[in-house]
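Exercise 7.
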Amino acid sequence: MTRIVLVRHGHVEGIDPPRFRGRMDVQLSDLGERQADLTAERISTQWSPSAIYSSPLRRALQTSQAICRKTGLNAQPIEGLHDLDYGDWQWKTFEEARQLDPLLFEQWFSTPHLVRFPAGDCLQDLVLRTADALRMALSTHAAQTVVLVGHDSVNRALLLQLLDMPLGAYWRLSQSPCAISEVVVEAGKVRVERVNETAHLEMRP
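Solution. The predicted structure, written as tokens, is:
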């Protein structure tokens, strides 16, 4: 049995008001650092992970490092957890992107599986990357618990694969900053224990 504890990084600039962050290497805000510490406390008291893997972007690494401090592990950055590449739309506000291409902007929120960002990724590219990360975790950590620290888009893509849902369902799965999702894979069968849990963020250190 492999247990996957899936974590989104903490709060950063560009979440509210929203921007297409993607590969923009922003760091955690003060709120994000507090969220990461609370998430690390939650993970260290609930699970005993054998490994931690992270997106190579700073906001995910900072979140994973908080978990490392509580668990005594070292985080390994992997390309399979890298965020969606928004290409020419990176760091654009939603309004700026809408003005650039109103039709593509509308399609992203209605049929995301049919969109490729100008000079960037499509969801199929993201699924290929995250599938590699998932296969690695399952093959390397049989009968262990592994923490994966990713992004909103990355975690949605992973959950869609684990739940055997189509890419068109991308927007049906919320992933809040420092949310925890938990999935157990045993004998080829997938059992989802929790999705987008944030109750630990209401705790006080």
